[in-house]
UniProtKB/TrEMBL annotation:
Belongs to the class I-like SAM-binding methyltransferase superfamily. Cation-dependent O-methyltransferase family. Its EC number is 2.1.1.6. It comes from Emericellopsis cladophorae. It is an enzyme of class 2 (transferase). GO terms for biological process: catecholamine metabolic process; methylation. One of its GO terms (molecular function) is O-methyltransferase activity. The keyword Methyltransferase applies. This is catechol O-methyltransferase. It comes from the Eukaryota. InterPro entries: SAM-dependent_MTases_sf, SAM_O-MeTrfase. Gene3D superfamilies: Vaccinia Virus protein VP39. Keywords: Catecholamine metabolism, Methyltransferase, S-adenosyl-L-methionine, Transferase.
Length: 294
């Protein structure tokens, strides 16, 4: 399941491209506008109970009205193929936005015999959009929305008895990818057989996360022993456009730099190149936990 270039996969179909991503690309009212758009479709009765038609309506809005920061068809196919392979009983996504991935992957989890798809979303308005579209798609029995910051949501699930995540889709606040993975490691829910699929590792990129999941255990152990608490925000490796994108609603981000993870976990990781729904090249890092050393 690897590729050396976007062209190694199916070429991007420009006729399906979303509207261009502009300087302001979310949280400007378009998410609620999307709901009105979907529910005003003339075929709304046909859309009810059909994940495929709900996704088609969301895609239509993204193509004809305004850009939406969804995983899209191309990268989405990578993850649905993983779901068919892994057959997760429990799948978690970090970052739900308007529910595109929750509908797409939630339906795939259901079809693969899975039990629950947890969608963690910090913005309560976005979470309400997810809930509405998940219900419209007929997936409320599978998809559960957890409102709050990703670290709080992860801790809450662990406290409620979650002992292992089979498949996790990571697509939220970019500087939080690595701290949240390390939190999952510390809580013991990353185990042999767990698969991680991290979006946007090319656009905009995520060097700290990629370095960690690609590092051998010995290197991680050395860094674990040498690490000290940081006085920084934990966002220094990222462009301001992404590190400050939630500042308007949540204030300055300060990630928990005390989380150290479990360096004994053995990963194999590969980049699968694909495209954003706009046609811009991007990729998903697929990481498999092979077990634990020592």
């Amino acid at each position: 399941m690897s590729s050396d270039s976007p062209d190694a996969m199916t070429n991007f179909d420009d006729s399906k491209a979303y509207a261009a991503q502009e300087e302001v690309f979310f949280d400007d009212g378009r998410e609620i506008e999307l709901l009105h758009f979907v529910y005003s479709r003339p075929n709304i009765d046909e859309i009810r109970g059909s994940p495929e038609k709900v996704l088609a309506a969301i895609d239509e809005y993204g193509r004809t009205r305004k850009y939406l920061m969804n995983v899209g068809e191309d990268k989405g196919r990578i993850v649905t193929d993983l779901i068919k392979e892994v057959k997760p009983k429990i799948m978690i996504e970090l970052g739900g936005y308007v529910g595109y991935s929750a509908v797409l992957f939630g339906a795939a989890v259901r079809d693969a015999g899975g039990k629950t798809y947890y969608s963690l979303e910090r913005n309560p308005e976005f979470a309400a959009v997810i809930l509405s579209l998940v219900d419209l798609a007929g997936l409320s029995d599978v998809v559960k929305v957890v409102v709050g910051s990703s670290d709080q949501g992860i801790r809450r699930l662990a406290q409620q008895g979650l002992d292992k995540v089979d498949l996790m889709f990571i697509d939220h606040y970019k500087p939080a990818y690595l701290p949240d993975l390390k939190l999952c490691e510390e809580l013991g829910i990353i185990q042999q057989g767990t698969v991680l699929a991290a979006d946007n590792v090319i656009k905009p990129g995520n060097p700290p996360y990629l370095e960690y999941v690609r590092s051998p255990v010995e290197k991680k152990k050395q860094e674990f022993l040498a690490s000290t608490s940081s006085s920084g925000l934990g966002t220094e490796d990222f462009d301001d456009r992404y590190s400050q994108q939630y500042e308007k609603t949540h204030g300055a981000e300060r990630l928990d730099t005390m989380i150290k993870g479990d360096p004994r976990l053995v990963y194999s990781s590969e980049l699968i190149k694909s495209f954003e729904p706009t046609g811009v090249p991007d990729g998903i890092e697929v990481t498999r936990c092979k077990g634990k050393e020592g």
